[in-house]
Design a protein that fits this description.
The protein folds into two domains: about 110 residues, Yope Regulator, Chain: A; about 140 residues, no CATH class. Helix content is about 55%, strand content about 15%. It is built from ten helices and eight strands.
Length: about 325
């Protein structure tokens, strides 16, 4: 395929910024071109269900999928057909793959019927494309559907703003957990009547890893409500939250130790004593803290990763 425009013209799609929409064989669809490596196009075809669906696909599709030339999936009310190395295909070949995919949806009874998605009427139901979504909607229902979409977007915006306070809450939870961890650590030593315990490095690592996971889990579940999709952004937020929480937890721990020994609440003294306190940490203590912080970051990245809620048109 030398020209993507030839494919768009063949399918009679309408441009909408970075996407093109229309219908093929009566099915509403969206085409997106990704200037990636390799370059590819994605077809999104509206389905009659919002649930993830396992498709029985033709053998020819299975072979192309195994070779890494295409990818097929069904989720979030759409069937997805991704064609990689799109410029290796002619327009006829690309259209043929799309038609085969559409027929596969029909064979699996996943294709969208011709009724209006709002009122159910099958009279004059037209293709409607709004905010990156496509559906079949009766003319008189289009304005109502768009208004509902705007209201849902506003609601999601308000929820995201409210959930923004979960980041400082996560920091506080981590700080409390960090302080409590080392207070329990001190308490265990006080019971043993000794200042030194010889521990194998493997055992030290395992105990620290478990402590890090337990420490990070509450914050991970809090941050999950933010629906952070980007791995890089989530990693930056996780590292910032954990380091800030652990630093505050260290100050809180020292404040409690000073109060325990001198019956004085001296937060300023605790802050000024941080550098000296860190310098007195043993090698084993440093290893424990590094492992705990690392595991807390990792568990937050794994658990807190979310997906932006789909707004159905």
């Amino acid at each position: 395929m030398d020209d993507l425009k030839a494919l768009i013209d063949e399918l009679e799609l309408v441009s909408s910024g970075d996407e093109f929409y229309g219908e093929r064989a009566g099915q509403p669809l969206i085409l997106t071109y990704l200037d990636s490596s390799p370059p590819c196009i994605m077809f999104r075809v509206r389905l009659n269900t919002g649930e993830q669906k396992d498709l029985r696909i033709p053998e020819s599709f299975s072979e192309l999928s195994e070779q890494g030339n295409i990818k097929i999936s069904c989720e979030n009310s759409y069937g997805w057909l991704t064609i990689y190395n799109i410029f290796d295909y002619s327009v006829e070949e690309a259209v043929g793959l799309l038609d085969l995919f559409l027929q596969t949806l029909v064979d699996n009874q996943a294709n969208l019927d011709k009724n209006c998605s709002v009122c159910g009427s099958d009279v004059d139901a037209q293709i409607c494309y709004t905010a990156g979504q496509i559906n079949r909607i009766f003319d008189r229902c289009a304005d109502l559907a768009e208004q509902k979409l705007i209201e849902k977007e506003k609601e999601l915006g308000r929820r995201k703003y409210i959930y923004g306070i979960l980041i400082p809450v996560g920091v506080v939870v981590l700080a409390l957990g960090w302080a409590l961890l080392w207070l329990v650590y001190d308490w265990c030593f006080s019971l043993s009547d000794t200042d030194t315990v010889k521990v194998d490095y493997v055992a030290l690592f395992l105990v620290s890893a478990i402590a890090g996971v337990i420490l990070g889990l509450p914050t991970a579940f809090l941050l999950r409500k933010l629906c952070i999709e980007g791995h890089k952004l989530l990693s930056i937020i996780s590292i910032a939250v954990v380091l800030t929480g652990c630093l505050l937890g260290e100050i809180l721990y020292l404040t409690f130790v000073i109060y325990r020994d001198f019956k004085v609440i001296a937060v300023r003294v605790a802050v000024e004593s941080l550098t000296l306190f860190w310098q007195t940490n043993s090698e084993g203590m440093v290893i424990m803290k590094v492992v705990i912080v690392s595991c807390a970051v990792i568990i937050i990245c794994l658990v807190a990763k979310g997906k932006k809620p789909e707004i159905e048109l």
